[in-house]
Amino acid sequence: MSRAVPTRDGATVMLVRDGDHATRPLEVFMLHRHPRTAFGSIHVFPGGVVDRRDAAPDLDHHCPGLTDAEASARLGVPSGGRAFWVAAVREAFEEAGVLLARTAEGAPLRVDHDPELAERFEGHRRAVHAGERALAHVLVAEDLRLAVDEVRYFSHWITPAGAPKRFDTRFFLARAPEGQAYAHDDRELIGSTWIRPLEALDRCREGRFPMIEPTIESLAAIGRYATTDDLMAAHDRVTALGGTP
Description:
7-stranded mixed β-sheet, two-stranded antiparallel ribbon, 22% strand, globular
């Protein structure tokens, strides 16, 4: 009898914005995974495995508005919950070039106004992705705070038993910040796009946009809403009532 494959903790984030469409402008940023990666050749949201450094105590100062106790209560785990939020933010930075962060003065991070700044953050991104630099070191060097308080918990998925690789993944939702890269990493990923949820689902049904069930179900859920404001307001209402987003 074969032994069950253990799960690994994971986190993924749906970055949403309103595009230029006259009706139902809500869009989500998606990546196309390299065929040689786990679950290769499919379209996904930025995400990956929770790393031990995502729970480092030195992140406390850089995560205002969300304690580990609060995060753990939202996820229904004894401790270590905030690491999922940090992992979602880190993976968005590594895979999509988007760092959900604020300056020490509280302004959203932007890098589009300064080519040298943009180049420096691209260097940070490559180093973090390669494991050569911890995200905490980038935050100290740039005097930044992670915008974990703006990242909403959305859903929980576990890879079924029998799969060669299994993940226990938390899905999150965040408004896409302006003034950042939004470009795939060209290592584990071969493409990226902004797409309306219902369009992605239509393409998937036609066989032109392969996805796995958690991604499909998440797109169906957010695709019920026409705009980012509609989606966020509905999410907050359900959460405030103690329901599942």
